[in-house]
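Quick review question:
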């Protein structure tokens, strides 16, 4: 059974098993990927496309992995089976064209719950000074599904006669060695760190990492790969998910703790006291290490619009140029490649490295941070305390309880943009939902001047150059989910007291608009970092 809607998704195949993602879908994705690569005509007509394939530790991943490899073989492609691997390992193998790879595929649902699975696809591309990776979207394969509709039964029937995936090629150890380039002093690292793979596939990184840091101790919790994720959610960003890691760090006197999501392309951290370091703070910390060491005149950094203004402060403090982007890896990577940034990342714990095909990688971020910590001689908490102080709500998710949620959500965002623009004391930026920065400055007449058009995106629809000399008192962003009935709210202020007040105000405004526009009830399904506001907001409805 194939769900045609999967071929309309933006960045990857993703859904619950077996209703939305299953072996049949995987088989045809493998077939269509080979056809797509052949049609690009970047591979000699006589050559068979080579595709490195990896999988995470979900219970359904082995069967989906095998079916996809069979699909590749059925279309005349050559699968390079990577076996258990992290997403960043597979992306690196594709970017490096390891064993002649023309593309990479990862079987994973990333941070989603155990009942989900998915398929991510990338291919190496030339982007200018440095090579990069292009995401192969499900929509790129949709024409092959439509053209193949009459021969589906015959093609599927032949799958059972195709060979088993075969012996995995060793890619993880090579990738860890590559990641350790960001820690040139690793042979002299000492002390203990604690890593929490959360029963995810990140556990495959542990032994190769230990071999690279012989003088340090790399402890682990929840290290057994188990697709049921019994120790904690596969998303370390959920409330309470890092509690066990924090406890382990305190008990063992570790330098810090690091956690990976289900496919280990994101990095979450706690300091030596077990306190959680936000994605924004880790972004700022790595920027503070990266920019002073950057060579050349271009010291630009790209980040997504939900990040703290502290990211802007930090970039400008160290002589860099900030570029604000739409949320999402595709846009962030495009901005980094067009502008030629030295670094980039998202507050959701994605950190991107231009010298590794602009990919996001948990283990590279870990090694880059550890190297900087070693060189600086400070504790993690001292590093974080030195960063600009802002008060951020985290991302608050508001569920719209209506079948017409898409239309209601769009109208809510549009009305908020209009009302704040008419108010006249705020900059209103609409490249990703709406972001509102208050108050205005005499230096910049409007948002088109403060957030200037940037190289490669002159219409400013994907990313903007943030000019110097402006700092809001407070700001918020509201954007709608494309796939779920959710409105995502972020609020930040230079004052903790103002943050609470403005967050309650914005929650009332958003929920009131949902009610007045479409008669829709709402509930908050994720309170970000401000869970204490739940009772306060409930009283003021």
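Suggested answer, residue by residue:
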């Amino acid at each position: 059974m194939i769900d045609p809607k999967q071929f309309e998704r933006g960045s990857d195949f993703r859904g619950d098993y077996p209703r939305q993602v299953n072996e049949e879908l995987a088989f045809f994705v493998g077939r269509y990927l080979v056809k797509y690569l052949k049609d690009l005509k970047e591979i000699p007509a006589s050559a068979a496309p080579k595709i490195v394939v990896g999988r995470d530790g979900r219970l359904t991943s082995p069967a989906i992995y095998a079916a996809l490899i069979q699909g590749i073989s059925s279309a005349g492609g050559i699968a390079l089976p990577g076996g258990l691997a992290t997403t960043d390992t597979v992306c690196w193998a594709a970017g490096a064209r390891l064993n002649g790879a023309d593309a990479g595929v990862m079987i994973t649902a990333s941070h989603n719950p155990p009942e989900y699975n998915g398929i991510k696809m990338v291919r190496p591309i030339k982007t200018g000074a440095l090579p990069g990776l292009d995401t192969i979207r499900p929509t790129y394969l949709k024409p092959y599904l439509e053209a193949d509709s009459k021969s589906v039964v015959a093609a599927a029937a032949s799958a059972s006669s195709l060979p088993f995936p075969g012996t995995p090629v060793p890619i993880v150890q090579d990738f860890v060695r590559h990641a350790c380039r960001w820690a040139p002093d690793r042979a002299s690292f000492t002390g203990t760190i604690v890593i929490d793979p959360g029963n995810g596939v990140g556990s495959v990184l542990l032994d190769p990492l230990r071999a690279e840091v012989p003088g340090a101790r790399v402890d682990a919790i929840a290290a057994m790969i188990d697709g049921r994720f019994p120790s904690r959610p596969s998303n370390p960003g959920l409330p309470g998910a890092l509690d066990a890691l924090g406890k382990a760090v305190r008990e063992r006197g570790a330098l810090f703790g690091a956690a990976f999501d289900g496919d280990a392309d994101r990095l979450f951290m706690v300091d030596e006291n077990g306190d959680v370091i936000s994605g924004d703070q880790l972004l700022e910390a790595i920027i503070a290490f990266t920019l002073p060491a950057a060579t050349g005149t271009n010291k630009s950094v790209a980040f997504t619009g939900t990040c703290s203004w502290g990211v802007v402060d930090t970039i400008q403090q160290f002589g860099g140029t900030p570029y604000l982007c739409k949320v999402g890896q595709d846009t962030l990577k495009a901005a980094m490649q067009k502008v030629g940034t030295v670094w980039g990342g998202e507050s959701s714990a994605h950190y991107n490295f231009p010298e590794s095909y602009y990919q996001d990688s948990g283990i590279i971020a870990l090694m880059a941070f550890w190297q900087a910590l070693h060189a600086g001689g400070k504790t993690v908490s001292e590093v974080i305390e030195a960063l600009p102080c802002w008060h951020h709500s985290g991302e608050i998710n508001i569920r719209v309880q209506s079948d017409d949620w898409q239309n209601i959500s769009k109208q809510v965002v549009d009305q908020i943009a209009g009302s704040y623009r008419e108010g006249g004391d705020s900059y209103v930026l609409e490249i990703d939902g709406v972001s509102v920065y208050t108050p205005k400055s005499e230096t910049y007449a409007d948002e088109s001047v403060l957030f200037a058009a940037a190289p490669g995106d002159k219409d400013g629809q994907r990313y903007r150059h943030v000019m110097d000399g402006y700092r809001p008192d407070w700001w918020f962003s509201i954007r709608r989910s494309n796939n779920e009935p959710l409105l995502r709210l972020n609020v930040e202020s230079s004052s903790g007291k103002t943050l609470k007040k403005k967050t309650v105000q914005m929650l009332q405004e958003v929920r009131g608009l949902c009610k007045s526009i479409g008669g829709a009830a709402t509930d908050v399904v994720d309170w970000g970092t401000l869970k204490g506001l739940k009772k306060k907001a409930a009283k003021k409805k």
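Why it works: The chain has 17 helices and 25 strands. The longest helix spans residues 496-518.
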